[in-house]
């Protein structure tokens, strides 16, 4: 008697600018050092949008996007230790680093020379099941939190946390440009740390401004407005290069502007006087496992309000369209 193979579902990108296609596949077997997870939730990140829209080069096609994954361990590959069937774990963007390049040896695995990213180099979480390298999975112990509200922590939260650290401990007056999934988490973390948050949204987006104020922002306005006083630092999450000179105008002498996205439109020319007086512009790239442990510990000690809009797996294209159009307050999450 023969047994039919178990089937999984996945939303697959075959080429940039094409809609994702629902496919049925055989459930994969984890290899050495890998876990197979049944996906409980996967948040939809702006990076997924950049992948689908072709803003980033596509090293692997077809590909299943998604890198903010909460899942349950369903099978362990050879050599895996520290996990058991039934454990709840998270899978972030960084899916592998070499461990041997200069950056990895210096504790900067986010800049690894030969990384593999979830949902970019290897199939991600827009699926019912996913394979992940156990060493890069994150044990999840957050109490009384459903999977859909944990998922955005795994990229929006982690990149936001790294951006917040890059802004500097002395950045008491902090500007956030683009109030989406990452900013709505960072704003809360910053307020908990005793900082004053100034939120910049699309001009005229009064709903987003009210949302920011509801999460503790001291001031909220359009990106074309000046804050009531100079900022110590600003973080840009929106993928709009024209916000860099706008943020430089808003920060004081010695202030810092941090670009938190993986992709941004070209930065327009701006007068040197905006950069002068020791202002600086920096970028944040990817994340480290140390970032993840630190932020998840913070989130456990200081529960954050995670605002989500959930979609069925087959609605992945709708979720991407809503994100592209700015129709989501908080984060979009697929729930297979």
Automatic annotation (TrEMBL):
The gene is adh2. This is Alcohol dehydrogenase. Keywords: Metal-binding, Oxidoreductase, Zinc. It comes from the Bacteria. Belongs to the zinc-containing alcohol dehydrogenase family. InterPro entries: ADH-like_N, ADH_Zn_CS, ADH_Zn_typ-2, GroES-like_sf, NAD(P)-bd_dom_sf. Its cofactor is Zn(2+). Its EC number is 1.1.1.1. GO terms for molecular function: alcohol dehydrogenase (NAD+) activity; zinc ion binding. It is an enzyme of class 1 (oxidoreductase). PROSITE patterns: ADH_ZINC (PS00059). GO terms for cellular component: cytoplasm.
